[in-house]
Amino acid sequence: MRFVDPLSMEWDAGLVDPQLAPGVAIKPLREDPETGEVSFLYCSPPHRVPPGMAKPQWTHPMVEELYCLEGEYVWGDCGRMGPGGYAWWREDVYHGPAGTDTGYHLFVRTIGGPLVNHFDDEKKPFTWEPEYRPQLPADLMQYAAAYDRPPNY
Ligand SMILES: [Fe+2]
């Protein structure tokens, strides 16, 4: 297995789907030569707000695993995610609309194929305080807990 050192890599905005909001960038970690599955770091600056507070949801033909390393990511489908937050979206499960007030740093992995994005046609309203509905495999659901946002500013 090839070793990569994220601290020595540049963030690459060119690897992000152009339909996702500008400002985000990726550091690729691994691509499986057999399956096309990928893992990567994904970051956003703060104040990335859906224009007009509405955005289409999107989904993928493969499973997406997402782990929030730092910052906060607000998901219309599953709630506000903070450091340690985790999601496992099955194939063809729509997620979002999404935005961030704090910015975030994520680890993302695909299972079952390369990353392919399918966007819905319809915009859904975005809120900063969506309901907590964890997206997890059944055996992990017992560990789920809503993010308790620490006082900040
Ligand atoms: Fe996704």
TrEMBL record:
TM region(s), chain numbering: none
UniProt domain ChrR-like cupin: residue ranges: 19-110
InterPro entries assigned to the protein according to its UniProt record, in alphabetical order: ChrR-like_cupin_dom (IPR025979), RmlC-like_jellyroll (IPR014710), RmlC_Cupin_sf (IPR011051)
Protein name per UniProt: ChrR-like cupin domain-containing protein
Organism encoding this protein: Pseudohaliea rubra DSM 19751
